[in-house]
Structure formats: C-alpha cells, structure tokens
C-alpha cells in the first residue's frame, strides 16, 4: 500500500489492522491509531495509547473503532464525531471486539480481554458503564471476535463460543496439540458467516459450524428449535499445515492463509527467542487452500525486513462482506475481494488475480508473448493491448530483437497513427528502421509524410536494403511522401561504390514521380532496362537519347536502330557513328554499327555515304551476302580499299566485281576462272564486257585445263565460234566428254543457224512492209487552217481553234513549192481565211480550189476524203489499206506530171 504508509512507518512499526466498509484502521507500536482510505492516505489519527496497539475493531456500520493496548486501556473513538470513550483495566489488553450493532444499540457493548485472563463484556447501564466477566481462569485472552449474538475467544486452553442472546456458553474447542505457546504464535479467529467460525492456530486449521438441533414434526418435516440450549458445534473441516499460520481469512469455499515457513522441524525451538537465529527468516507466503488442504495458489511476499520477523509479527485482515453478502459469508457480485497483510514496515494489499493481473504478472516475469496472447484472447481490456504491445516492443528492443519487434508492430500498433510514427522515429534513432519499413502502413492509418520519407532515406543510406527500397517505392503510393528528400539522399551516392543497380532504378522511379523524365531516362539507359524504348515513346524523349546510343544498342539492337533511323534528323549519322566507335570496350560496337549503317543504307542509300568505306568492311565481317549488292548499289566507297578488304577475306565474287569496276577485266577474269572455276560466270562476264580480247584471254586461261575447255565449248555457243576454240586447243589434249559436247555444240549451232535464217526472213518482210507503209503515208495530205473546224466538227473545239488560229503560222514551217501560194489560184494563203491542204510533195492548195478541180469526185466524197486525210495527221499508225475504198485525194500537179 502506498499513500502515507511509508511516511507513517518510517519511524514506527505497524502492529495490527482492522478493515471497515469505507476505511482502514492501522495500529502501531507507539500507541497511535491511523485511519486510512483504501489508497493508504491518512484521514484521521487517534493517539489513544502510550504502548503498542494490540487489536482493533469496527462496528458493522464503520462509525466507531475500538482499540486496546499494552497500556491497559480500551479506547473507542467515533469516526464522525468527537465522541470518545476510554476504559482502564490496569493490565495489558490483547483483544477487543465491538458489538456489530454498536452504533445502533444504546447499550454500547464491547468485549475485551488480556493478560489478566478475564474476558469482559462492557455495556452501558442506567448508572454508567459496567463490566461483566464472561470467562476467567484459563490464561490470557489472545483473540476475540463478535458476530451477531455469538462471541468467540481464544485463551491458553482453547476456543470458546458464547451466545449473548441467552447468556450461555455454547462450545469449547480444544487447543491443537503441539502448538507453541500463544505468546509466541497467536491464534486467529474469523467468522465467515453467522454460523461458520474459522480457527487458525499454529499449524492447525479448524472450521466449526454452529448448528441447532431439529425434531421431526407431525408431517415428517424437520424444524430448527430456536432455543439456545439446542445449539451445538460441528467441526466440518480440519487439517494440518507444514507452515505456521500468521493469519487466516475466508475466500468463498476456500481459505486465504498467511503462511510463515519455519526453518526447523522442532517448532517449539523455532519460536524460542533464545535459540532462533536472527536474520534468517524466509518470506511470508499467501496461500489459497481448500478445506481439504489442497493448495490452489502460492505467492511469496517481498516485504521489507522479512529476514528479522517472526510469525506473530504478521497479521491478515479482509474487507468486510457488504450488504446481503454479510450474512452469507460470500463476496457479492461486483465486490472486489481485498486482503491486507501487515508487517511492521509494510501493508500489502492482496486480491484475487483477474485477467489483467495475470497479464501484468506475465509482463513482470518477461513472458511478453504469453501476455500478448492473453490480451488477444479477450482476457483483458482492449486498451490493455497498447500497454502490452508497448512493453513487449520495449522488451524486444532491449534484447536487440529488432526484426521480431518490427514484425509484431502491425499487430500491436494496429490503426494508431501516432503510435506508428513514434515507433518509426524510435527505430530510426536505433538505426534499425529498414527492418520496420515493410510493415509500415500506407493507409488506415496513413502517417505523416515525414515518417515515410525518413523510412525511405533509411533504406537509401544502407546498401543492404537497396532492393527493399526499390520494392517499397514501387508499392507505396507516390502521394504519401515527397520524392525530393529521398532523391537528395541518393544523388550523393552516384558514382560511388555504394551505388547499386537497385538504387539507380529507385532513383529513376523517384525522378519519374518528380517529373524529371530525362534524368530517369539516363539511369534506365545505364541499367539497360527493357522498358526503356516504351519509356522514350511515352514521354517523347527522343531528344534525350543523343548520349544513350550505345546503351540503346546494347539493350535491343533492332529497336534501337529503328528508333535512330526514324529520328535521324535529330540524331544524324555523323553523331551516331562516333559514339558507337568509342564504345568498343563496352560491347561489340562494330556489330551495332553494322546494324545501324545497314538499316540506314536500306532506308536512304545516300544518307550514310561518308561511311560506305567503313560499311564495306562491316559487311565483310558480319553479312557477306549483302556485300556484293552493296558494292553494286553504292558509288561512295574507294575501290582500292574495298578490294583490299575483299582480298583479305577471300571474297572472290566481290573481287571480280570491284576489278571489273576498276577496269581490270583480265584480272577479274582470272579470279573467276582460276579461283571460282565458274565458266558460266566467266562467259557472262566476258559477254558483258564486249571485248574480243577477253574472249581470247578466257580461252588462253582455259586451255591448260581440259575440263575448263569442255565447259567453255558448252557455254560459248551463240557468243563465239566453237571452231575458233577447237582450232586453238593443242593436239593431244584430252577433253572429258568431248564427243558429247561436240554433238551438243553442233546441234546448238544448227538450231542457232536456223533461228537466224528465220529471223532474217522476218526482218526482210518487216522492212518491205514498213517501206510500203512509209510510201503510202508520204502520199497523204495534211489539212491546215480554219477549214478544219467545218470539215471535222467532231474534233475538240479547243484543238480546232488552235489549228485555225495557227494555220497560217504552221504553213510557214512548210517550204511549199508555191512560195506560200495556192498551186491552183496562186493567191497567197494569208489573204484568205480558207483551209489549206498540203501534200508531202510540198504542193499546197486551198481546199476549195482543190475540190473544185477534182470535178470527178463529188463534194460529199471530197468532204469525206478531207476528213480522212485529216485523220492521217493524228493516226499515223493506222493501216491506210483498211480505210474506206473511196479514191484518195492526190496532188494535181504531181499526178498530171506522172501521167
């Protein structure tokens, strides 16, 4: 008990205690009675005695307290008035008990006894207070308890019960054998209810039941007889203990015993003041036992100075039963059973452990996990979880079990944002925050931005947790924290040994959150992230890839080439090529360069013309099939350098092409014949060169190889006379399959000759037909001038107008023999707006003059003829013989002259 106890007992010692329903009375060795509340705070003080207070007693209402002392006085004080009564007995008084109805009964009775060996019943009469001796002659009175009308007391002989209602003694219970003298070990009497008396003396416990005799009525029922002479006592329970009893009290159907553990088997010696060893006593214990001496619980009390105390130095009292439970001897529902253990320097409050006490006890003994399980099982208040959780976490922190503490935070802190923030900063102070980060909630509750930022910075500064930082950044919503403090913590680590790939990717993610996409691109490029290309397209970062060419190629050459080609206006080849060349130590940059230049050439043959010399070598190294098409398509490479490359790599057809382009046809032919050994290609090459000397060179190079001669004979038909080759073949040269080849040559020659004759005949026939057609066309006339509009109304109006307006001008081109005059009327064409007909013989006529002169032809026919003649001007390819059989218009002068 706290409060004023420590102060009161600092210079004094407690001797006895009594508990009422609303307060506590504590007696001390200096004769003072202290009235305390249940927290131990002093309410009143009665300096009633000059010697040790031996016993205290409250009435049932708790309005009066009586005390007795070694000074021989009994004092009764009113707690709420100034009333005080003092009685002197001249001998030390050891026990007192007020009438339970003391405050309500005008007789003001109490019973007291002491070393005089007399038990006094004091009551108020008409003439004052008078003492009645209830018992004497059997030694000092050691204890007395009054319940209803029953008074129980103990002396040296045993325990007696007296009924004040009939002024008769009911029973006698003998003192247990072997019990030390009462002066050394006092007896303890407790009324559990109106009929049960609990006696604890030495090492013996007896429970006596006060009963009344019954008789059988006429109807067979049992009835209790209400006269005292019929009452008797039954011992309903009795057992021996292995310890000395310093106090006893009821606890429902069990007993609470204050046990003093003796050190010797001989109890008498143990309690002998001459033989006991000072300073070696054990702790007193509070034990709960059944009426059969089954121990249910044991608790040792850590009182001050227990080593020097004896059994009689301790006492036990319990709070009175309240209300209707008083008579029944059981705690009422809602009442808290309280027991008070008094030692000279301490007052200890004992009460049955509830779930919260159990949890507190577990915490005190370091069993935090069990305490947590008990709280979660609903054995305590919900609010207790916070306390248990905090103490559990503190315990784990002290044990340096940081990971386990972090894993328990979600269960222990739950939805308390303030608790979470407190532990976040506590872990940060301990430099163990990375262990807590995976468990920090981002919603319900949501913490302050600072808490999340501190957590991320803690991960960023520890290389061991960089991967955890990356996963945290990806999982946490960006809105709950600011990226700038974390970026500021990471950026100084760039280009240092602590910069890991995970930290780079984390920094890139933070740059994206902060809107710094170009910086994020740079980090993604260094990390060769596959999503780099999508990232560029998403944020339109084509301008920023200028310095990331090599990384893009290393990541995905095809996509990188496509990206660079599409954006060659922003990143021209003159910038891309040097960057790839400078990256030779990082990757196969020449292969990347080949991919880029190849795609560039396919897209635009002239875009990378400055690098075609380099491209020749790249094709030779990486894609030889494409080299020859490239050599044929490009005009921007040096032939000599390209030839050297082809020679080094033994690329024969490419050598042939380059030699041919260089004009060194003989050397090219030698490569084909001697290295490629491909006569077909050699013949094709010589044919394309249109050089007879090459044929001779080809033949010369083949003559010393019989198989070549045979193949040459097969493939020169149509290009060279086989007899020429045969004549040059040395005599005696054995040519494989010569007979078959000669047969084939002759057959092919005959076929070729036949085809030539047929072609010549067709050619001659075509020449004759074309000459005839030319002759006929030459005889046709051309109609010029405005007359065409009338003659050919179906022609296009715009075209006719052009002819009419330009007829005279067009006539100027024709050098007519009439000097620009009609050969019939000799009038100049310019003075008449009349259509003109011109013949290929250079004679020209007015259309009217010509038609009038041809009187043999009707005007309808003439008109039709003019239209037909006009058609010749526009349909030169038509076969004139298929036209109408109408007589053709002829030049009059030429016809006349011919006739």
Automatic annotation (TrEMBL):
Domain of life: Eukaryota
CDD domains referenced in this protein's UniProt entry, alphabetically: RING-H2_Vps8
InterPro entries (alphabetical): Beta-prop_Vps41, Clathrin_H-chain/VPS_repeat, TPR-like_helical_dom_sf, Vps41, Vps41/Vps8, WD40/YVTN_repeat-like_dom_sf, WD40_repeat_dom_sf, WD40_rpt
Domain Vps41 beta-propeller residue range list: 4-351
Pfam families, sorted: Beta-prop_Vps41 (PF23411), TPR_Vps41 (PF23556), zf-RING_Vps41 (PF23555)
Keywords, ordered alphabetically: Protein transport, Repeat, Transport, WD repeat
GO biological process terms, semicolon-separated: cellular response to starvation; endosomal vesicle fusion; macroautophagy; protein targeting to vacuole
Domain Vps41 C-terminal RING finger, residue spans: 821-859
Positions annotated as CHCR repeat: 564-711
GO cellular component, one term: late endosome
SMART domains assigned to the protein according to its UniProt record, in alphabetical order: CLH, WD40
Function noted in UniProt: Required for vacuolar assembly and vacuolar traffic.
Family classification: Belongs to the VPS41 family.
Protein name, UniProt field: Vacuolar protein sorting-associated protein 41 homolog
């Amino acid at each position: 008990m706290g409060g004023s106890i420590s102060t009161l007992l600092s210079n004094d010692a407690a001797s006895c205690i009594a508990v009422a329903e609303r307060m506590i009375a504590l007696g001390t060795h200096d004769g003072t009675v202290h009235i305390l509340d249940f927290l131990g705070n002093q309410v009143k003080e009665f300096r009633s005695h000059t010697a040790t207070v031996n016993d205290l007693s409250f009435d049932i209402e708790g309005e009066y307290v009586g005390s007795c002392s070694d000074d021989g006085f009994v004092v009764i004080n009113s707690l709420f008035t100034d009333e005080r009564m003092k009685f002197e007995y001249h001998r030390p008084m050891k026990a007192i008990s007020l009438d339970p109805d003391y405050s309500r009964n005008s007789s003001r009775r109490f019973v007291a006894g002491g070393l005089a060996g007399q038990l006094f019943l004091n009551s108020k009469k008409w003439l004052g207070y008078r003492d009645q001796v209830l018992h004497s002659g059997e030694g000092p009175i050691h204890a007395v308890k009054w319940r209803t009308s029953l008074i129980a007391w103990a002396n040296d002989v045993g325990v007696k019960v007296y009924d004040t209602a009939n002024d008769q003694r009911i029973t006698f219970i003998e003192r247990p054998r072997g019990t030390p003298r009462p002066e050394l070990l006092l007896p303890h009497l407790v009324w559990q209810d109106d009929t049960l008396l609990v006696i604890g003396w030495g090492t013996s416990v007896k429970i006596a039941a006060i009963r009344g005799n019954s008789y059988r009525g006429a109807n067979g029922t049992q009835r209790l007889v209400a006269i005292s002479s019929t009452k008797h006592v039954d011992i309903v329970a009795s057992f021996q203990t292995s310890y000395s009893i310093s106090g006893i009290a009821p606890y429902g159907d069990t007993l609470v015993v204050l046990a003093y553990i003796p050190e010797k088997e001989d109890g008498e010696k143990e309690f002998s003041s001459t033989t006991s060893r000072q300073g070696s006593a054990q702790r007193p214990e509070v034990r709960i036992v059944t009426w059969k001496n089954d121990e249910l619980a044991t608790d040792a009390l850590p009182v001050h100075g227990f080593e020097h105390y004896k059994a009689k130095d301790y006492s036990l009292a319990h709070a009175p039963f309240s209300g209707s439970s008083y008579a029944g001897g059981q705690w009422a529902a809602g009442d808290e059973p309280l027991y008070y253990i008094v030692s000279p320097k301490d007052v200890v409050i004992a009460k049955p452990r509830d779930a919260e006490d159990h949890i507190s006890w577990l915490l005190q003994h370091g069993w935090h996990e069990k305490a947590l399980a008990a709280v979660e099982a609903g054995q305590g208040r919900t609010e207790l979880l916070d306390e248990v959780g905090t103490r559990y976490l503190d315990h784990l922190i002290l044990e340096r079990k940081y990971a386990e503490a972090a894993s328990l935070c979600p269960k222990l802190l739950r939805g308390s944002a303030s608790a979470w923030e407190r532990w976040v900063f506590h872990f940060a102070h301990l430099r163990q925050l990375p262990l807590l980060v995976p468990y920090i909630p981002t919603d319900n509750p949501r913490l302050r931005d600072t808490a999340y930022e501190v957590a991320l910075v803690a991960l960023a500064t520890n290389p061991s947790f960089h991967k955890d930082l990356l996963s945290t950044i990806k999982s946490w919503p960006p809105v709950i924290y600011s990226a700038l403090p974390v970026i500021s913590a990471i950026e100084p680590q760039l280009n240092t040994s602590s910069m890991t790939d995970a930290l780079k990717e984390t920094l890139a993610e933070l740059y994206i959150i902060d809107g710094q996409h170009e910086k994020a691109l740079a980090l993604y490029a260094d990390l060769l992230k596959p999503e780099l290309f999508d990232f560029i397209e998403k944020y339109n970062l084509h301008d920023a890839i200028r310095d990331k060419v090599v990384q893009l190629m290393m990541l995905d050459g095809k996509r990188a080439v496509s990206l660079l080609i599409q954006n060659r206006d922003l990143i021209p080849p003159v910038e891309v090529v040097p960057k790839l060349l400078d990256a030779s130590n990082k990757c196969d940059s020449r292969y990347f360069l080949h991919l880029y230049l190849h795609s560039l050439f396919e897209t635009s043959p002239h875009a990378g013309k400055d690098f075609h010399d380099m491209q020749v070598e790249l094709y030779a190294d990486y894609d030889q099939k494409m080299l020859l098409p490239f050599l044929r398509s490009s005009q921007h490479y040096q032939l000599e350098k390209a030839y050297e490359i082809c020679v080094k790599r033994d690329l024969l057809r490419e050598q042939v092409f380059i030699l041919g382009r260089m004009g060194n046809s003989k050397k090219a032919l030698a490569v084909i014949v001697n290295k490629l050994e491909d006569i077909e290609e050699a013949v094709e090459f010589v044919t394309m060169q249109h050089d007879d000397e090459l044929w001779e060179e080809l033949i010369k190079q083949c003559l010393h190889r019989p198989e070549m001669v045979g193949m040459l004979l097969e493939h020169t038909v149509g290009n060279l006379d086989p007899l020429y080759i045969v004549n040059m073949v040395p005599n005696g040269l054995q040519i494989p399959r010569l007979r078959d080849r000669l047969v084939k040559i002759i057959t092919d020659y005959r076929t070729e000759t036949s085809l030539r004759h047929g072609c010549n005949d067709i050619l001659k026939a075509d020449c004759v037909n074309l000459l005839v057609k030319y002759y006929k066309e030459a005889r046709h006339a051309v109609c010029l001038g405005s007359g065409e509009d009338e003659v050919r109304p179906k022609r296009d109006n715009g075209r006719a107008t052009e002819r009419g307006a330009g007829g005279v001008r067009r006539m100027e081109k024709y050098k007519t023999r009439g000097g620009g005059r009609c050969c019939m009327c000799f009038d100049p064409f310019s003075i008449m707006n009349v259509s003109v007909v011109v013949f290929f013989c250079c004679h020209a006529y007015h259309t009217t003059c010509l038609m009038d002169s041809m009187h043999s032809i009707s005007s309808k026919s003439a008109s039709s003829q003019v239209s037909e003649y006009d058609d010749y001007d526009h349909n030169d390819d038509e076969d004139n013989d298929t036209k109408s059989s109408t007589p053709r218009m002829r030049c009059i002068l030429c016809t006349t002259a011919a006739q």
